[in-house]
Amino acid sequence: MQYYPVPDLQRPLVDKFYRAHRSSMRGKGEATLWVAKDGEIVGALNLTPMAGGHWLTGVFVAPSRRRAGVAGHMINAALGEMEGPVWLFCDPELSGFYQRLGFVATEHLPAELTGRLMRYRQTKTLIALVHQR
């Protein structure tokens, strides 16, 4: 299994991966897109630069490859390349997974993320986590 940031010319392949699995996730603007690849893309995530750190979104693993460590290895590979804090929002049921990767609950977010979290919480139950580098 390989874990690596996708070159700009291959960004459309990540969106194709998300669409093939009927995921609403997409590669976002200035985000660095990471993939897990085993002959084909089996996982992807986005890391968007933000306020001295990064925002982790779009973590998705093909259903046939879940519970095999793909997401954890992909996130760890991506975090190994980052400096500063990395924030994410997740469903409370996923907090244990992220905590095993070194994330901790936080209410201290950059202003842009605070606003987003407030909007998202109008329709979803989410918690904010941070990984300090």
From TrEMBL:
<dbReference type="InterPro" id="IPR000182">
    <property type="entry name" value="GNAT_dom"/>
</dbReference>
<protein>
    <submittedName>
        <fullName>Acetyltransferase (GNAT) domain-containing protein</fullName>
    </submittedName>
</protein>
<keyword id="KW-0808">Transferase</keyword>
<dbReference type="GO" id="GO:0016747">
    <property type="term" value="F:acyltransferase activity, transferring groups other than amino-acyl groups"/>
</dbReference>
<feature type="domain" description="N-acetyltransferase">
    <location>
        <begin position="1"/>
        <end position="133"/>
    </location>
</feature>
<dbReference type="Pfam" id="PF13508">
    <property type="entry name" value="Acetyltransf_7"/>
</dbReference>
<dbReference type="InterPro" id="IPR016181">
    <property type="entry name" value="Acyl_CoA_acyltransferase"/>
</dbReference>
